[in-house]
Each structure stands twice: as structure tokens, then as C-alpha cells.
Design goal:
The chain contains 5 helices and 4 strands. The protein is 20% helix and 28% strand. The radius of gyration is 15 Å and the shape is globular. With 174 residues, the chain is of the alpha+beta class. The structure holds zinc ion.
Length: 174
């Protein structure tokens, strides 16, 4: 997954590495995904608005529940980005297309997910497409940057498990 930054293609990773809530910050502060209060609102916004993470993406990330739909997997992957859980991202990426390892962008904090469109990806489908807009911020105060990742993601079901195969079309963020 590549990120479209609104400006400044320089090496912002170092400068903004400590943005509160960013992957680098979570790592440095030891606030790992499993330390998240299951009653807190799910970063994905919830399939039903405001759902707690323990009833939304949490069990999927923990491997306790298989996502029934491509959208459910997509939401859990967004939440894994928000919580800097590279392992879940790697595990749910199709072996045919996945990179050797998945490290969430270290300097950004993911703040909002909007699912724009869903094509197939249901419990009886073998493929699916989910289009989303994911908003992020980096830096603070005067150095604050905002951006958006807009992607149509493709998913395939393999041996009963939904897997991410890659972007259908990468759409430039606004
Ligand atoms: Zn969720």
C-alpha cells in the first residue's frame, strides 16, 4: 500500500516519526495492538457506527474470527494499519502478491476510514472489490500534514479465507 502525500515528498519519516498515534509512536511507547482496550471505538469506524474494537476488527486481527466478507477483512486491515500490526497485514495479503514483509508507514496516524464502494466479496463470492478512502495525519501544530489514501482493493477467497491481492486502481488522494 502506498501513501499519497498532499505535499512534501521529502524524508518525513524521521521528522514525523514521533507523531502521537503513529506506528513509530506506538512501537516506541509499547502500545501494541493487544494492549488496546476492547471497549474503545474501533479505528475503522465500525460496520455498525461506533462499534467497539472487541466486537469489530479486534477478533479478526487476533485470529479468533474469520472475516465473512471482503469488506470485513478490508476494515481489519485498516485497523491493523492504525494499530501498526504488520503481522496481520502480512498474514491477510495473498502469497502471490505480498511483499516480503509489511511495515505500516511509521510516521502517520490513521484517523478515518470511509468505505466508498463494495463489489461482490460476500460470503458466497470468491472475489471482491472494496473501494475506500483512508485519512491520515502526521506531525503536529505548524508541521501538521493531512492526506488520504484512496484505493480500490481487490480480494480473493482462498481455502475459505479472504485475502488482499492488491489495488485495482490506485486513485490519487484529494
Ligand atoms: Zn473495525
Amino acid at each position: 500500500m502506498t501513501i499519497t502525500r498532499t505535499w512534501d515528498d521529502g524524508p518525513v519519516g524521521e521528522i514525523f516519526g514521533t507523531t502521537k498515534g503513529s506506528a513509530a509512536w506506538l512501537k516506541a511507547s509499547g502500545a501494541a495492538a493487544d494492549a488496546v482496550d476492547p471497549r474503545s471505538p474501533c479505528p475503522c469506524g465500525g460496520t455498525t457506527a461506533g462499534a467497539a474494537i472487541g466486537e469489530c476488527c479486534g477478533p479478526v486481527i487476533e485470529g479468533e474470527r474469520r472475516p465473512a466478507t471482503a469488506e470485513e477483512l478490508m476494515r481489519s486491515r485498516y485497523t491493523a494499519y492504525a494499530l501498526a500490526d504488520g503481522e496481520h497485514l502480512y498474514r491477510t495479503w495473498h502469497p502471490r502478491t505480498r511483499p516480503p514483509s509489511v511495515e505500516p508507514e511509521p510516521w502517520v496516524r490513521w484517523v478515518r476510514l470511509e468505505v466508498v464502494d463494495v463489489v461482490d466479496g460476500g460470503p458466497h463470492d470468491s472475489t471482491g472489490v472494496v473501494e475506500f478512502r483512508a485519512s491520515w495525519v502526521a506531525g503536529e501544530g505548524r508541521t501538521l500534514q493531512r492526506g488520504e489514501l484512496h484505493e480500490r482493493s481487490r480480494f480473493e477467497r482462498r481455502a475459505g479465507r479472504w485475502l488482499y491481492t492488491g489495488p485495482d486502481t490506485a486513485v490519487t488522494g484529494s
